[in-house]
Amino acid sequence: MGWAEIGGCLVRGQEMCLGKTRNLCSRRTHLSIHLYTPLRSLKRIAMASQRSSRALRVALRQASAPRVQQRTFVSAVNAASRPSVQPAQKAIASSFVQQTRGAKTVDFAGDKEKVYERNDWPHDKLLDYFKNDTLALIGYGSQGHGQGLNLRDNGLNVIVGVRKDGASWKDAIQDGWVPGKNLFEVDEAIQKGSIIMNLLSDAAQSETWPRIKPMLTKGKTLYFSHGFSPVFKDQTKVEVPNDIDVILVAPKGSGRTVRTLFREGRGINSSFAVFQDVTGKAEERAVAMGVAVGSGYLYKTTFEKEVYSDLYGERGCLMGGIHGMFLAQYEVLRENGHSPSEAFNETVEEATQSLYPLIGQNGMDYMYAACSTTARRGAIDWSKRFKESLKPVFEDLYESVRSGKETQRTMEYASRPDYRQAFEKEMEEIRNMEIWRAGKAVRSLRPENQ
């Protein structure tokens, strides 16, 4: 058996240990957790951690992946959302979920919401629903790439519209899109399409709108994956035609994640919304599109709520806030004599590789329960102080989003002629920060990178 230090706990696992806490082992695995004291040899812990970490991470990924029969890809996709559960698990789940036709009502911490699953749209139904449609995907960036390939793999009639011979055109060709067959310039793609998927960047949507809008004729459907442009129309000038359906499907992850989860037979969580329903069928079409692009389940929102929560989350816990906390903690450790490797491991590596996966798997209490009394007591106590300190910052952030200040800042920055150069300069500054240079060295020592 090997030992590993995880979240303040000493974990001993054999072969395929499926996690860093209790009750996470396969039938062939033995896992035990022992609290330890500072008197234990740190050298022994570190050496054991290096031996065991790879097996722990690999097994955790396997534990979170659905087990499906490999008949066809589509059957795997459909089966993945129907994992087998034990009777006790079914009883627990039934207290949260009530099935209704076409949707489930789920109790989210006391608020009941409807969620829509891909089970409601098996592959044959999906093909029949879109049999007369041409899905014109405009833009081939992160979301365009992921959603486009998923639509194509689902057998739908999808075409890509980008600037000829540009970087996106070349990327699309590398992904198997064929000029003149399913790869066109933007104008031609829009003319051919019945569902126009505007997946250009927010700045590009604003810039190209005067050219695109006249081609959005009656009978077409306009699709977004972000509510930015129509919600902040005063800044973006994206005023949608009043005689077409306008819908949104917003995957909760990058285009790369949308693609990866689809290929794994899982599916990403997405929100959907209707901005304008001329035909009376906009909501149904939005849900169908959500399944078609690779969603595992969808929940309903509005364009406004989607863009507010998205901009707020990105600037907060998802990216900006967590980056700021990483930097603050790392700097204090360094100022108090800790080495770069120790500071990075205690700030970023343990968080991303050991603890955050546990939160994602079963919640914050699950992570706390896996840790020593010393670790959990201090963490719970300090969480209250962090909340008190940070909530005013988050309130300011939300108001900045809602008022349009964040939108205005984004538009001004993205419209600069030196935008790409300025962005690369910022990225270079981040890459050269000591914390991330130390991180590069730490990652190189992971067993899978040896």
From TrEMBL:
Binding site for Mg(2+) 1: 310, 314
Presence of keyword NADP: yes
Subcellular location: Mitochondrion
Gene Ontology terms: cellular component: mitochondrial matrix
Superkingdom field: Eukaryota
Cofactor: Mg(2+)
Pfam (any one): KARI_N
Pathway assigned in UniProt: Amino-acid biosynthesis; L-isoleucine biosynthesis; L-isoleucine from 2-oxobutanoate: step 2/4; Amino-acid biosynthesis; L-valine biosynthesis; L-valine from pyruvate: step 2/4
Residues that, per the record, bind Mg(2+) 2: 310, 346, 350
Binding of substrate, residues: 372
Domain called KARI C-terminal knotted: residue spans: 302-449
A biological process term (GO) from this entry: isoleucine biosynthetic process
Any GO molecular function: isomerase activity
Record-listed E.C. numbers: 1.1.1.86
Group of enzyme by EC: oxidoreductase
Family stated for the protein in its record: Belongs to the ketol-acid reductoisomerase family.
Protein name: Ketol-acid reductoisomerase, mitochondrial
Protein's organism: Hortaea werneckii EXF-2000
